[in-house]
Amino acid sequence: MEGDRLALGCDLGATNLRVALVTEAGEVVASAREVLDDREPEAVATDIRTLCDSVLAVGRKSWDEIAGVGVGLAGQILGDSGFVVVGPNLGWRDVGFGALVRARLGREATLVNDLSAAAWGEHRVGAAQGVDDALVVFLGSGIGAGLILGGKLYEGASGLAGELGHVKVVPGGRLCGCGERGCVEAYAGGHNVTERLQELVREGKAAAILEAAGGDVARVGTHALNLAAEAGDAFALDFLEEMAAHLGLAIGNAITLLNPRKLVLGGGMFHGISRLRPLVEREIRKVAGRAQAGVLSISESGLGDDAGLVGAALLALG
Amino acid sequence: MEGDRLALGCDLGATNLRVALVTEAGEVVASAREVLDDREPEAVATDIRTLCDSVLAVGRKSWDEIAGVGVGLAGQILGDSGFVVVGPNLGWRDVGFGALVRARLGREATLVNDLSAAAWGEHRVGAAQGVDDALVVFLGSGIGAGLILGGKLYEGASGLAGELGHVKVVPGGRLCGCGERGCVEAYAGGHNVTERLQELVREGKAAAILEAAGGDVARVGTHALNLAAEAGDAFALDFLEEMAAHLGLAIGNAITLLNPRKLVLGGGMFHGISRLRPLVEREIRKVAGRAQAGVLSISESGLGDDAGLVGAALLALG
What is the 8-class DSSP label of residue A175? Predict the structure, then answer.
């Protein structure tokens, strides 16, 4: 019976590998996680096989009962081959990872960008269910998006569509991890926020944020920013307003251009910083064209951290 | 024989109606143009019928030989019904224009946004032929774009996708014709460029541009700007650099987000201002993500002023 098909979804992060056994309805039946101790592609492919075997054991299923395997990872992946052009978190460049995974599994596997997988998960069983045109944005240590357009996952000419984090909001501005200047990620991505706050503290600013970090510069980051903002510190509140303005500009302009029905906002930064979501939503609605904003609904991620896992599994089911 | 099918394409502008008899291969066999003297929807629908009849007479074809009729107009059009939510050039709001046209023609007609029609024309028989993912930008008195994504015309959740002219490049900046502030069109659309230059002249600046306009403020505009820039006037050249920077920011960011294979740049401003195209292309490549820019080719419009007519006709052929 079609409704009973099962798939394995894998989420390959910078430090962790997660695998889940997922039903066609998007339910996670069993899952496991392990720390990657070797990022060599061959070793990672072997880890995927091993962790898939473990999850099948936990879920009391056999490989014969699995209709597909999907693997999501941060990076640029070329179409069906699963060739990884760049995988920045893993330090990979030009890795034929799809072929390696298929060899280890002895079966077909679908490789996909992790944010595209997450967007597909939200579209199929999450906050964008039943919506043909959706922009799914995740704000964590970096910033990225997945695009569902006309009911399909849109990945661009070379698998790079949705790189919202590298949209420029301050031409010639702050240096981003990508090597270019003025990207929204350089101002509002978690990693860069921590870096910026520590710089500010070293310049003698942001006293309340330093205090919230117990006076230890190395512990200054989004958590301390949130504490200071919650305590009403003006500097912290201004900092959040500036972050929201940059995010609102990048996301609001994407809404004007793409006219989606649904915007899904997910990622750890929204949980870590209580006041961020309403500020960002306000800025998005300020920047986006009035008519586009008029048909837009904004939702929190429905799948949270599981979006990528579930989406990769469902993509593998086709 | 399928290859011989014919369609009529109509392009409804603010002041003119154009109609062309178009082959399935995108060739314009016959065409005609008339000035609209009445913008009432009923009158315009009658004009469309009359001009279609004339073009058929010119091309020595009968209605029996026509496989489809497509009508492109500037505005927000809701899907297959051809309901015009807003048609700013015509001063229309909530007009069931599709039904009016069908009644006048006594047959099916496809209504579409003019820039979506133009993008489809470029995709099918113009500069983006054979390319699945293309962004088609037209820079005239206003600025707009059409999106070809995954080989299909993408129009968004409510027919507003591609409104590139209303992407914000200067938050809180110059007032745009749309009623919002800081849109790229407010800085680089032809109508606004003329307005800005006349303001500058009235403030005693841009002496060389005023001179190029024969000393008549009312004649200051893109033509005088081009003459002054060609003569090497520093003010005019700076103005062009600023225009290019704004356009590069809006278009380059769209390239980062959408990762198209092809960018088509068309519209009268590129013909009127000789130095504009290379400046804009340089700025786009500066702003767009390196990897996205690496797979992007940029072309001049292949169909020019006929893009909308041809695209509307080909859309009607399905």
Answer: B
